[in-house]
Amino acid sequence: MKKQSGATEATSLVEIGPRFVLNPIRIFRGPFGGQTLFQNPDFESPNKLRAVERRSKRSYEDRKEAKDQRKVYKSQLVVPEDPLDSVFR
Asked: Is 7 left (phi over 0), alpha (psi -120 to 50) or beta?
């Protein structure tokens, strides 16, 4: 855009796309190994996080209680008798 004489324009920043963020876990001396030059102390592997989450979700007692509740629920279900059931016998 050309600036018109006497007019003031405010400069604005527009984000074009998604941000790309690299979070280095470990930096080695060689291309695929070697001495560790940097190791991120805050990094936790996704597998470890999933395992902790799974362990905290339900305990054994919770699963047993849910199983017992399901048995009670199933025993309370009553299927109505179909009046057309004896027609095709």
From this structure: beta
pLDDT level of residue 46 (50, 70, 90 thresholds): very high
Model's pTM, two decimal places?
0.38
Alpha-carbon dihedral of residues 9, 10, 11, 12, nearest 10 degrees? Answer: -130
Phi and psi based region of residue 72 (left: phi greater than 0; alpha: psi -120 to 50; beta: remaining): alpha
Q: What is the DSSP string of the chain?
A: -PPPTT----------S--------EEESSSS-SSEEEE-TT---HHHHHHHHHHHH--HHHHHHHHHHHHHHHHH--PPPPTTTTTT-
Q: Rounded distance, CA 42 to CA 45, Å?
A: 10
Token pair for residue 34?
């070697």
Average pLDDT, the chain: 84
